[in-house]
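To assess whether the prediction recovers the assembly geometry, we first specified each molecular entity separately, as shown.
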Amino acid sequence: MTKNNQQQDPALRMVMRRRAEAAGRMTLPEDFTDRLMQRIGESESAQKAKRRLWWIAAAACLLLIIGIGVTMWPREETTVMAKMESAQKSQTAQMPQEKIQEKTQTPPRPTATPSLEGKGGAARSYAPQKGKGVAAPSKAFAQRQKPLPDSSAADRLNYYIAHLEAEMEALDDSVRAAHVEKLIAADVRLQQLVNRIVKGDLEQVMNEMKKDSTANYINF
Amino acid sequence: MEAKAINTTQAPTDETLIIRRILDGDTALFRQLATRHAEPVLRMVARLVPSPEDAEEVTQDALLAAFQSLARYDARQAHFRTWLSAIAYHKAIVHLRKQHTEHFIETNPAWFDTIPDSETDALLSDTRHDRLVLLDHAVSMLQPNDQMLLSLYYYDDHPISDIAYITGRNEGYLRSRLQWIRKRIALTIKTLESHDKE
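The predicted structure of the complete assembly is given in tokenized form:
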């Protein structure tokens, strides 16, 4: 080895030069650069297309994640509804005790009239309807006596209201809104009825008062 | 010699400007760089890849790879041609590994440590015709990357630091490898001579 750390090795240098010169006789064809620039153009468009695909894929993944997040996110309504239902259920659990006490104190409840039964009857109308989202009333209600056939409509109304209360507890969310609407409509009709009755009563009283005053006037 | 052109400190500054403009979007300017450097790269590749068609393909692959990684070129680390030579070197090695068929001759490993450095120096300095033929034969028996190392060192006269950049190896390894290659060539020549005598 030489002192300057550079190998002389003249024979080896000669061999390497000959090999390099043999290789150096190679030349490039005239269209080499044109073909190279064409390949560069093709690779650039391929890269742009790839980049576009990546962006589309990333956007699609993002939308998917957002969509899943939105559908899986627990809604406030359902949470509140669940709380209300559980509160009502706990109240209903106490109801059987109260209703049994009522039974011993109040007269026997009127059972369903033949006309009602003919139209579908209390028992039949309150049977759980399959596939319509209305579940069976609570066990406590099932133990209650049906209204007596000769009971008044007002008495039967109390019974039906109690049944409604039990029924609403067990309703599915899918039909609950429809039932609430019906109750609201029924409430409106009941209020109108009460108004008419009260108005009628008032008018009657007013008429009687007028008659009395006129009679008194005549007599006077 | 192209080696001196590569090692010049007066690297063309317009190349840096051209590269900057290419990176800014003027890709057509790469044609200028390709025209300037394609032939020297081909000559380097051809030392490893004797087939003209293969050498041309490897050269084009190297230039395309250089374009695609142009943003990673750092003018402070190496001249553009040195950087390009590194890419071409690796492309040529990969090409050869796919095609290289080993045809070593069996050398007696016991001889390896028995050849003194002085004998190695003498064998590699003997310029007689028959010795040059054996030497050429011994070189062709080397692995492609070892042949390229010899070519860069003995023909291009690259310093070890430049060769380290081109090959991606550290300088200590390259110095040891060169010594190993020299001994290997010497051993091969002795083996071939002993076969001839038989």
